[in-house]
C-alpha cells in the first residue's frame, strides 16, 4: 500500500466526478453540483500510525481527499478514518 487510494476508487472518481456531473467551472468560478451529499472516507495504510504522523501523510490525505475531491464538488465530509497496520497478506 502506497498511501494512495485504491486504483478502482481512483478510476471511479476520475470517471464519475466529472465536469457537468460533480462540478461546473466557468472562468475562475466553480459551481458545486453535489451539494447536500455526504461522504465517509476510509484510508488504509500498511505501516504503524507513528510513521504517518511524522511524515505528514495524514495532512496530505486530508487535503487531497477531503478538500480537493469531495468538498470541491460540494460534498460534506462526515468522517475520515485512517486504519493503520493493515496487511495485504
Overall description:
35% of the residues lie in helices and 26% in strands. By secondary structure, the protein is an alpha+beta fold. The strands form 2 sheets. The chain has a two-stranded antiparallel ribbon with strand order 1-2. Strands 3-4 form a two-stranded parallel sheet. A hairpin with a 2-residue loop joins strand 1 (23-26) and strand 2. The longest helix is centred in the last third of the chain and has 14 residues, at 57-70. The protein is elongated, with a radius of gyration of 15 Å. The termini are close together.
SSE blueprint:
Elements: H1 7-16, E1 23-26, E2 29-32, E3 38-44, H2 49-55, H3 57-70, E4 76-83
Parallel strand pairs: 3-4
Antiparallel strand pairs: 1-2
Order of H and E elements: HEEEHHE
What is the overall silhouette? elongated
The number of helical runs is: 3
Total DSSP E strands: 4
In terms of per-residue confidence, which ranges show pLDDT below 50 for 5 or more consecutive residues?
Answer: none
Largest sheet: 2 strands, antiparallel
**How far is the first residue's CA from the last residue's CA?**
11 Å
Cα Rg: 15 Å
Please report which band the strand proportion falls in: under 5%, 5-15%, 15-25%, 25-35%, 35-45% or over 45%. Answer: 25-35%
Q: Would you tell me the structural class of the helices and strands? A: alpha+beta
Q: What is the topology, as strand order, of the major beta sheet?
A: 1-2
Q: Residue share in helices?
A: 25-40%
Amino acid at each position: 500500500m502506497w498511501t494512495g487510494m485504491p486504483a478502482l476508487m481512483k478510476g471511479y472518481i476520475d470517471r464519475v466526478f466529472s465536469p457537468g456531473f460533480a462540478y461546473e467551472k466557468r472562468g475562475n468560478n466553480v459551481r458545486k453540483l453535489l451539494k447536500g451529499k455526504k461522504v465517509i472516507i476510509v484510508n488504509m495504510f500498511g505501516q504503524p500510525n507513528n510513521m504517518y504522523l511524522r511524515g505528514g501523510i495524514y495532512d496530505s490525505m486530508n487535503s487531497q481527499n477531503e478538500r480537493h475531491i469531495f468538498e470541491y464538488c460540494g460534498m460534506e465530509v462526515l468522517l475520515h478514518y485512517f486504519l493503520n497496520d493493515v496487511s495485504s497478506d
